[in-house]
Each structure stands twice: as C-alpha cells, then as structure tokens.
Amino acid sequence: MNSELFKMKRARLLSVMFVGRCAQSFLLPTPQSFSVLPKASLLHEGSRHRDVSVSVSKNLVFCNRELTLDRTEAIGFDMDYTLAQYKPEFDLLAYDGSASKLAAMGYPREIISMSYQPDRFSRGLVLDIKLGNILKMDRYKYVRVAQHGSRRLGPGERRAVYRDSVETQPTYTGREYINVDTQFQIVDAQLFEQLVDLKDEYAVKRADPAWVGAASEAELAAADFIARKSYEQLFVDLRKCVDLCHRDGVIKDRVAEDPARYIVEDPNLFPMLEQFRLAGKKVFLLTNSYYDYTDTVMTFLLASHIAATEGRSHSEATREGYAWAKRFDVVIVGSCKPAFMQDRYLSLFRVVPQMTDEECGLAAAENVAEAGGPGSCGRDYTLRNTDGLGGLTPSEYLRAGHVFQGGNWLHLQQLLGLSRGDKLLYVGDHTYSDVLRSKRTLGWRTCLVVPELEAEMASHAAEVTARKKRELEQLRLKQEAADDKVDSLALQVYRAEMRSDAKSGAGSESGDEAADEAREALAEALVDGLEHQALVKAEVRSATEGWHACFPGKWGQIFKAGLMDSRFAKQVSDYACVYVSRASDLGTVSPTRGFRAQTDLMPHEHREPNPDHLGPI
After folding, report:
1. Residue-level pLDDT at 25
2. Dihedrals phi, psi of 58, to nearest 5 degrees
3. What is the full DSSP assignment across 261-290?
4. Model pTM greater than 0.85?
5. What is the spatial distance between Cα 576 and Cα 444, in angstroms, rounded to a whole number?
6. How far apart are CA 354 and CA 380, in angstroms?
7. pLDDT of residue 20
8. Which of 154, 379, 541, 586 has the highest local Cβ count within 10 Å?
9. Three-state secondary-structure class, residue 142
10. Segment 140-185, tens digit of pLDDT
11. Minimal CA–CA distance to 126: which of 580, 570, 579?
C-alpha cells in the first residue's frame, strides 16, 4: 500500500476513535443511542407534527444528491422551524392576533370567532390571490387540485381556469401567486381561505333584500367594507396583520413569558451540535430572527436540555442556558435571507449584549415561575459596526465576539475560513430562502427540514394505507390493460380503413362485405373498450383520492399530487442534497457519513415489452 495513503487512512481512523472517546467522556450520546423511534413523543397532540404510534423508518436522513460529511468543513442551521420546532399554540398567536387586527380594520366580526385548524394546510400549495383560489400542482406545474376559498373546484372548472389558454400556459411566478414555502405561511393560507369564503358569503347576503332589511348598521358597514376588497387586497391586508403580530410583541412577548407552551423540546439537539464540533466541523447559526428573540428561544432549548439530561432545577438550568451562543462558532441574527445570499453590500454588525451570560442567568433564575420553565432576563443589546477581518485571522477576529447581525455570505465564509461554498452544509426549513437560493446562487450543500415527514411516513406505514395502495396498484394495472386494449383496437381500425382506402384508390370495388363487417365489428369493440376505459379511469381517480385521504390534512400527501410527484417534491429533489424531519436527525449518523442517492431510472428502463404489440405497418 502507498505509504501516504496508509498514513491518511490511519489518521482518519484515529480521528474517528478520538471522537468516540470524547463523546463518552462528555456524556454525549453516540449515533446508536440517539432517540430514534421514540421521537413521536416529542410531537404535540393535534399539531401538524402529529403523535404517531406506528414505528417509522430508522433511516432518518434521505438523500437526493451525493453528500459526504467528511468533506464538509462547516455546518449551519436556521433557527425557526429548524432548531426550534413550534407547537400549534405558536401559530394560534399569529392567527388570533391577525383576526383581531382584521376586525379592527373593518372586516366582519365573524373572523374573530373562526377557528384555526393546523392540519388543514401544508407547504407546497400556491395561493392564487387574484382569483381567491388555492392550488396544488404536480412537478410539471399542472394543477391537480384547486379550491376557491374552501370550495373544491371540479375538473372542468379547474381546467377552464388553468389549462384552456390558447396563448400561454401560466407559470405561477407573478405577484398574484404566493408560494407556501414555510410553516409560518400556514396561518396565511388558513386566513386567506376564510376571508375568501367570507367575502363570497357577504356578496350573497348583500343581494338579499330580506337580509339587508334585518341587518344592523355595523353588519351593513362590514358587508360594504369587504365587498370593496378584491381577493388580492384580502391577502395584502391579512399579510400586514400577520407581519405586525411578529413585530409588535403579540407573538414574541408571549413566547418570552412562557416558552415551554410554544416550543417543542428536542433532547437530541445539542448532542448533535457537539458531535459535529468534536469532529472538527465549524458549527454556526444563521437566522432572520433578531437577537432578543433568538436569545429567548435558544436559552430555553439549552436550559430544557440541561434540566432533562442532568436533573438540574429550572433555576440552575436557566443560569447555564444563557451560554447557548458558546455552542456555536459563529452566530448571525437578523440575516435578512434571502438577501443575505445575494447582496454583497449588506453591512455586518457585532452584537454586544448589555449583560454577560452569567449576569443574565442569575437575573433570569430569579424570575422562574414555580410551574413554569426557564425564565427570561430580557437583556438588551447594542450593535457595533465592523469593517470585517481587517487582516486578522478568523480566530483572532472572533475573540472580540462571535455573535453578529446582518452581513452577507462573504462575511460568513470569511468568518468560517472557507474559500468555497461546497464545503458548507446549511440546514433550514424554507424551500426558497434556505435551500433553493443557497444552492442555486452559492453552491452550498443543503439539508431541508420537513417536519411534515414524520406524520406522512407514519401514514405510509399504516395498514389501511398499504391496503389502499395495493388496491390502487391493481386498478392501475387494470387501467393499463384497458388502455392497451383500446390502443390495439384503435390501431386495427385505422389500418383497416387504410387498406379500404388503398383499394378504393386502386379502382377496386369496395363492396367486400366480409371486410366491411370486420371493420364494423372492430368499431363496435372499440366503442365498448372506450366505455370500459372511462369506467376504469373513474375507479382509479376514486381510489387515488381514497389513498390520499389516509394522510394528514385535506390536501393529501405533501410529496404527491395525484399519482405524480408534487411541485414541492420537485423542489426538494432539485435543491436539497438531503432532507430530514428534524435537524437533530443528522445526529443519528456519524460526522463522517457519506450519503448516496438512489439510482435514477427512465421509464424505458423498467418497462417490460408488450407481447401484443402489432409491430410496424
């Protein structure tokens, strides 16, 4: 063996052994001891991440594109819906707060009494805010399912709107189309559906003289108010209200008061981060949330982990929880993604907290409620302008503080000491801001967090789903046989007509009664075949809907639209090197693991030849 190659292999082996020993000495779980199957216990009852009793696959990291962690020098994470998963109560803050704000604007008061249903929508949908419709498309942007408000559009109505244009096919990229790319937008979709229904309902009421005569002045004013709004204006108003809830304290103040009520605890989160750092990876946090909220969430996550794993009191755990930033090599808050990945002129600021971790921990410990979780000290911070490394090495520059706000990808790669984007793996939940833009623009390696995956995999594993899938597969075989039969008969009819035309053109008499009878028999058989084909197609459509009904929510599988991959599935396969249901799933494999994608197959590579094929003319 080549001596240099032998040295490299020996050094790698020793490094892996060192990581294993360190993991034991630091009491970190090894990949085999991570909580794999009991992860359902982390999920909140009634949320989109539903509690499941069916064991799901132990392979928790799914690969689209070859990825070798051993060659990755830095691994970064988004915070919201990536490191921090939220309970339905979190979305309810935005929903209730926005509904109240809409009512205050003049919308009908019914909006306040409407309920939020977290399982009703999922990512991957598209809102047509011009027409008031909600769409689910396949990978080719064919609209498979459409609603106007909550009313399902029939196939003919759907095609008339989205497929019958003789000029151009819609691209679904203009300002009138809103992609539901992140969990935050589930509230937007729910409110949009309800406002569209409310607008249509009041249009009917306003045209009814009996209702007008019995309505109060407030009801008439609300009816006139919403009648003047277009569907697009409905969305603009609700988006303003939801955004205001994130900025005026309706959401963040409540989370700071009682984080345990809104944030899901994950016992595998910080062990996963430490595992990567022990393997020599740089670990960073890159989030659009600002420092005060990031401090609240990350403190709770670390304090909860310390309390659960070490049996410490909330007061003691809180004191150490404020040192969360030390678990990262670089922290960037208020990053303004996706601009962070596109605008090289964005300025970088250093975050300077007004209290040290120790001081804040002591102050917060005094505020811990008897029945509550870790408290909050609400520490303020200032921003200090920075001109970059200025000739210093990254380690020298970071000694003055490694928490920043703003900046751009060039700052981040300099701080991490990286010269190439493909040495960096970024983990996030937003299909556009976290995955698509970083992959397409910067060449980063990407991991998409898909929380919906857990419930979907559990549904796949359920016996009723497996049975309906088998029934659907049998019907699909029946449909293919019917299609082949119709195709064969149609081909025979065409060829019989061609032979008849050829005889007529040659001057032969066409009064061959046997040939005419054969053609008529073929035509009758073709009509019967077409009728049978239509019946089987209807059976397949019904079975497909029944199969999708086995999955959470009313839109069926997030990765399928009909029998095709959904538009969301295409985005995941195109831009996510790997995908997981939770960020900590990356801790279930070693930091040197290599992932390989499944072999791609073209349709002709797995289709058996048809022995009934008639062959060339």
Report:
1. 35
2. -80, -10
3. HHEE--TTHHHHHHHHHHTT-EEEEE-SS-
4. no
5. 10
6. 6
7. 42
8. 586
9. coil
10. 999 999 999 999 999 899 988 998 665 667 788 889 999 999 999 9
11. 570
State the residue for tokens 């025979």: 492
Q: How many CB atoms lie within 10 A of CB 514?
A: 7
CA distance linking residue 565 with residue 567, whole number of Å: 7
Nearest to 189 by CA among 150, 245, 154: 150
* Nearby residues of 61 by Cβ (< 8 Å), 6 or more positions away: 578, 579, 580, 585, 586, 588, 589, 593, 595
Q: By C-alpha distance, which of 592, 42, 587, 37 is closest to 268?
A: 587
CB contact at 8 A, 429 and 568: no
Provide the 3-class DSSP secondary structure of residue 519. helix
Q: pLDDT value at position 28?
A: 41
pLDDT tens, residue by residue, 101-127: 999 999 999 999 999 988 889 899 999
Closest CA to 278 of 75, 579, 581: 75
Q: What angle do CA 535, 559, 131 make, to 5 degrees?
A: 80
For the chain, which residues score pLDDT lower than 50? 1, 6-7, 9-10, 13-14, 16-57, 369-375
Are the C-beta atoms of 62 and 133 separated by less than 8 Å?
A: no
User: Closest by alpha carbon to 299, among 251, 346, 255?
Assistant: 255
Rounded Cα distance, 550 and 467, in Å: 11
Is residue 87 within 8 Å of 251, Cβ to Cβ? no
In SS3 terms, 85-110 reads as EECHHHHHHHHHHHHHHHHHHCCCCH
CA dist 88 and 67 (Å) reads: 34
Question: For residues 254 and 151, what is the distance between their CA atoms, to the nearest angstrom?
Answer: 35
CA gap 548, 567 in Å, rounded: 16
394 upstream amide cis, omega within 30 of 0: no
Question: Which stretches of 437-542 are assigned E, i.e. beta strand?
Answer: 445-449
CA 556 from chain centre, in angstroms, equals: 14
Q: Which residue type does 454 have?
A: E
Q: What tokens were used for 92?
A: 């309810």
Residues forming beta bridges with residue 383, ordered by sequence position: 351
Of 63, 51, 65, 58, nearest to 31 by C-alpha is 58
**DSSP annotation of 555:** T
| DSSP assignment letter at 353 | E
CB-based contact 355:363 (threshold 8 Å): yes
Tell me how long the chain is. Answer: 617
Question: How far is 411 from 416, CA to CA, in rounded Å?
Answer: 9
How far apart CA 529 and CA 542 sit, in angstroms, is 20
SS3 percent helix, strand, coil of the chain, rounded to 5, is 50, 15, 35
